[in-house]
């Protein structure tokens, strides 16, 4: 997933884990070169969600307008962080989210509206609730946090 | 408080409708049972005179084909009103989450939609509908179905359903509310009983472009941007109208994505012998109204069906539609669900053209 440098911000905050550092390094280097203030917040594998919520929330609440966030985390933690950050009040224009590693996706069954979790690279699955064979599309709903599964075979 | 001059009873799985104007309860019970037995398909009486034929050219491409409305009427009451309203209400009762969705912030816009549609019902069909206002205490009479509703404008507890759902049960149109914010449009609420193969439950909350993401070719040459910009500038008092079309196997109104595994199979059953009777041109007349108080846009969608057999009776339609289908690019053929029976349809239209059998 490509990261781009969002120039002209008063401060940058990088929220990442060990494996995310190489992804963010080019941006961090640019920020250092431009001598803009920045802060690093680390999330390690053993960090519980409650700790993430408390520490990061505290930090983000204290920031002034014009602060820009880069969040590079494993997919499983990224969604949680996205929701948290939006709840604090940062808009989608004030942050970039970069996921890495194996990714699970949700599939919305076109027939029963049930949600079935599967791997990202899956093309077809069986709905867990109504057992309809679904073909996974790229039509995504952020409200349902799921991709639409169409009838695979008539 | 809400009151009604009819009652629905569940009697061994059937609906019994009392006090129906011009019908005995026994006659109407038989009609309800017929609707129940056939599922959501009913034998339609195609009305060619009222059919909103959608084509002007012999080539069809996606475009902003909206026209300024001469008569600012959001709804049409047609001869199939009663059957379609009953079907709608049946679907809403049996499949509420499929047919009605709303986000919490839409109450104001829903009431505004209700007011607009009620006004149009009583202005354009004064013999069928009446509305009495005593301050905020309103009484609405639906004389077609012999129903009366008393409610307080703005107080949801005085209606049997949310305002958009309530007024949607009085009209044949599907109703979609698009909220305008941050330079974009979002599907905030809708009552959708007769969709052309899409899901309100899935699309709820999506932006304009997200909703139309599955349509191949829609983003080409910035068409999606142009249509979105057009809609964002819609003005109150200047409603627009457009038509959307598809071909379907069967005459079922409820062609929701949720039931595709049922009605979609009919596509495989089209043969050269049954094309005229089985395949129907499906047209949606969509009307777009800016609601001045909430700044939302109300889409009303009225669906019409006409069998190819009847369409082919009009020579000018037959010729034009034949040319359109022959020329239609593969991505549009595919998206409109025509792939399985396009050749059969073209062959049928060609035979009718060559035979010269038209009215």
Summarize the topology.
The complex is a heterodimer of chains A (154) and B (359).
Chain A lengths: L10 E6 L4 H13 L4 E5 L6 H13 L5 E8 H14 L6 E6 L3 E6 L5 E5 L4 E3 L6 E9 L4 E6 L3
Parallel strand pairs in A: 1-2, 1-3, 3-4, 5-9
Antiparallel strand pairs in A: 5-6, 7-8, 8-9
Helix pairs in contact in A: 2-3
Chain B lengths: L7 E4 L2 E4 L7 H13 L29 E2 L12 H14 L1 H4 E3 L4 H18 L4 E6 L2 E6 L4 E6 L10 H6 L5 E8 L2 E8 L8 H4 L4 H4 L11 H10 L7 E10 L10 H4 L11 H4 E12 L6 E11 H4 L3 H13 L2 H6 L6 H14 L4
Antiparallel strand pairs in B: 1-2, 3-10, 4-9, 5-6, 6-7, 8-9, 8-12, 10-11, 11-12
Terminal-residue CA separation of chain B: 53 Å
Strand elements of chain B, count: 12
Low-confidence stretches of chain A: none
Most extensive interface, chain pair and sizes: A-B, 18 and 21 residues
Characterise this structure:
The complex is a heterodimer of chains A (154) and B (359). Chain A has helices at 21-33, 49-61, 75-88; strands spanning 11-16, 38-42, 67-74, 95-100, 104-109, 115-119, 124-126, 133-141, 146-151. Chain A is an alpha/beta fold and 154 residues long. A 5-stranded mixed sheet of chain A has the order 6-5-9-8-7, with no helix packed on it. Chain A has a 4-stranded parallel sheet with strand order 2-1-3-4, with helices on both faces. In chain A, strand 1 (11-16), helix 1 (21-33) and strand 2 form a beta-alpha-beta unit. Chain A is elongated. The two termini of chain A are 36 Å apart. Chain B is α+β, with helices and mostly antiparallel strands and 359 residues long. Chain B is 33% helix and 22% strand. Chain B has 14 helices and 12 strands. Chain B has helices at residues 25-37, 81-94, 96-99, 107-124, 163-168, 200-203, 208-211, 223-232, 260-263, 275-278, 308-311, 315-327, 330-335, 342-355; strands spanning 8-11, 14-17, 67-68, 100-102, 129-134, 137-142, 147-152, 174-181, 184-191, 240-249, 279-290, 297-307. The longest helix of chain B is centred in the first third of the chain and has 18 residues, at 107-124. The N and C termini of chain B lie far apart (53 Å). The interface between A and B is medium-sized, with 18 and 21 residues.
């Amino acid at each position: 997933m490509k990261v781009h440098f969002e120039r002209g911000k008063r401060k940058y905050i990088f929220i990442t884990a060990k494996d995310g550092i190489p992804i963010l390094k080019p941006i961090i280097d640019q920020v250092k070169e431009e001598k803009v203030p920045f802060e690093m917040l680390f999330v390690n594998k053993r960090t519980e969600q409650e700790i993430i919520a408390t520490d990061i929330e505290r930090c983000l609440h204290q920031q002034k307008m014009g602060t820009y966030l880069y969040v590079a985390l494993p997919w499983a933690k990224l969604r949680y962080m996205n929701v948290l950050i939006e709840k604090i009040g940062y808009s989608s224009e004030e942050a970039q989210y970069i996921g890495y590693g194996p990714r699970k996706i949700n599939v919305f069954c076109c027939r029963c509206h049930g949600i079935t979790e599967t791997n990202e690279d899956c093309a077809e699955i069986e709905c867990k609730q109504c057992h309809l064979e679904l073909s996974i599309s790229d039509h995504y709903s952020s409200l349902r946090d799921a991709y639409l599964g169409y009838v695979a075979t008539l | 408080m809400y009151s009604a001059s009819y009652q629905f009873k569940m009697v061994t799985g059937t609906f019994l409708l009392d006090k129906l104007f011009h019908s005995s309860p026994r006659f109407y019970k038989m009609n309800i049972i017929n609707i129940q037995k056939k599922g959501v398909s009913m034998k339609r009486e195609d009305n060619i005179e009222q059919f909103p034929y959608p084509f002007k050219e012999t080539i069809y491409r996606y475009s902003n084909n909206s026209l300024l409305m001469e008569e600012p009427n959001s709804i049409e009451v047609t001869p199939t009103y009663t059957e379609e309203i009953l079907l709608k209400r049946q679907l809403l009762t049996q499949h509420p989450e499929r047919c009605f969705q709303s986000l919490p912030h839409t109450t104001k816009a829903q009431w505004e939609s209700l007011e607009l549609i009620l006004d149009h019902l009583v202005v354009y069909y004064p013999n069928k509908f009446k509305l009495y206002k005593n301050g905020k205490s309103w009484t609405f009479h639906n004389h077609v179905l012999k129903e009366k509703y008393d409610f307080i404008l703005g107080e949801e507890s005085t209606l049997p359903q949310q305002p958009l759902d309530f007024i949607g049960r009085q009209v044949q149109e599907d109703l979609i509310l698009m909220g305008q914010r941050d330079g974009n449009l979002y599907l905030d609420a809708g009552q959708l009983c007769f969709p052309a193969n899409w899901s309100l439950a899935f699309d709820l909350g999506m932006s304009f472009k997200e909703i139309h993401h599955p349509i191949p070719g829609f983003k080409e040459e910035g068409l999606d941007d142009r249509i979105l910009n057009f809609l964002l500038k819609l003005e109150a008092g200047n409603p627009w109208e457009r038509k959307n079309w598809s071909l379907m196997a069967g005459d079922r109104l409820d062609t929701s994505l949720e039931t595709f595994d049922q009605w979609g199979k009919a596509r495989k059953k089209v043969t050269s012998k049954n094309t005229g009777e089985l395949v129907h041109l499906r047209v949606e007349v969509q009307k777009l109204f800016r609601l001045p108080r909430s700044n939302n846009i109300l889409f009303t969608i009225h669906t019409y069906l006409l069998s190819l057999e009847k369409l082919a009776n009009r020579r000018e339609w037959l010729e034009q539609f034949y040319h359109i289908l022959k020329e239609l690019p593969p991505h549009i053929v595919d998206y409109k669900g025509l792939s399985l029976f396009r050749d059969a349809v073209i062959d049928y239209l060609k035979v009718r053209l060559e035979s010269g059998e038209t009215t």
